[in-house]
Design a protein that fits this description.
Elements: H1 3-14, H2 21-28, H3 32-35, E1 39-42, H4 50-57, H5 59-62, E2 66-70, E3 75-79, E4 84-88, H6 96-103, E5 107-110, H7 117-126, E6 130-136, H8 146-150, E7 155-156, E8 163-165, E9 171-173, E10 178-182, E11 212-213, E12 227-231, E13 243-249, E14 268-269, E15 272-273, E16 277-282
Parallel strand pairs: 1-2, 1-5, 5-6, 11-12
Antiparallel strand pairs: 2-3, 3-4, 6-10, 7-10, 8-9, 12-16, 13-16, 14-15
Length: 294
């Protein structure tokens, strides 16, 4: 192995969190129709993985055609519903071995190391592969991630696991940090009904961006048609049939760079920056989506 390969493997191991079986079952139960007749590849999972166990235990019920699992340890697990095969491969998801298996699979389902989420996500998009993967919610603000969410290619899943197992067998509390990212359909998602009004409080405008700041998701006004800057944690609570995703701002704007101001953050109010903000606009159901910023 090259030095870079060993360094990448060590880094992946240091921030690896194993998904619990209960959390796998809770989320994957929503996608049973999407798995029928498909080959699933869990490409960050060894033979102790909860993903692997779930698919083996439910292989026939889901109507799977095949299952592959592999990870940094370098073992490839194959299962066809009757026969199991274990062989050696280069388990780095970027390797030629893993990429070739991904290309012959239909759906990638796994929990990649958080530090490698961006290259993992980008690889899946480049190969136009369907996926259901776990990641840090802050990955939403990445330039490679947000445009896919804005265009509806990728959406957030139904649940948000709070606890994970570490490689040392300890329980890690990551409450509020993880989200499922998927290209699979997510019908039947429940969204909260917002009741706030623009007259309820004073909404301040950002210094360098033409949107009103909203500090809390529950304060999103329902009677305002202009641009709103809302917390990124609001994303899984926003029905994109009712709200248009326009941009995401922090030090820069992910979509429209014309507002970028060197030495400043676009979330500043009176010179003091807020956290990253999703820029959204309420849609009138009778209107088409309005893409340009007024």
């Amino acid at each position: 192995m090259s030095h870079d390969h060993l360094s990448n493997a060590k880094r992946a191991k240091n921030d690896e969190y194993y998904t619990r079986r209960s959390d796998v079952e809770l989320e994957l139960a929503h996608y049973t129709a999407s798995f029928e007749g498909k080959v699933v590849y869990c490409n960050c999972d060894d033979q102790t993985s909860a993903f692997k166990d779930y698919y083996v235990d439910n292989f026939k019920e889901l109507g799977l055609q095949g299952l592959f699992c592999s990870g940094i340890a370098g073992e490839l697990f194959e299962y066809d519903g009757d026969k199991t095969t274990v062989s050696k491969i280069d388990g780095d998801f970027r390797s030629n071995d893993s990429t070739a298996i991904m290309q012959q699979s239909d759906i990638v389902v796994t929990n990649p190391p958080y530090s490698l989420f961006r290259p993992f996500f980008t690889q899946l998009l480049e190969h136009e592969k369907d996926f259901l993967i776990l990641g840090n919610k802050n990955a939403v603000s990445c330039q490679s991630v947000f445009p896919a969410i804005k265009e509806g290619v990728v959406r957030l899943g139904y649940t948000a696991p709070d606890y994970f197992q570490t490689p040392k067998g300890e329980l890690a509390n990551l409450t509020g940090l993880s989200r499922w990212f998927t290209t699979l359909p997510t019908p039947g998602k429940n969204y909260p009904n917002f009741t706030a009004s623009i007259s309820d409080r004073e909404y301040q405008q950002f210094d360098l961006y033409p949107a009103l700041n909203v500090d809390r998701t529950c304060e999103i006004p329902t009677d305002y048609d202009g641009l709103l800057g809302v917390p990124i944690s609001a994303l899984d609570k926003l029905d994109q049939e009712k709200f248009e995703l326009v941009d995401l701002i922090a030090r820069y704007a992910v979509i429209d760079s014309s507002y970028d101001t060197p030495g400043h953050q676009l979330t500043e109010i009176n010179g003091e920056p807020r956290y990253s903000r999703l820029i959204v606009r309420k849609l009138n159901l009778k209107d088409e989506r309005r893409l340009p910023i007024d």
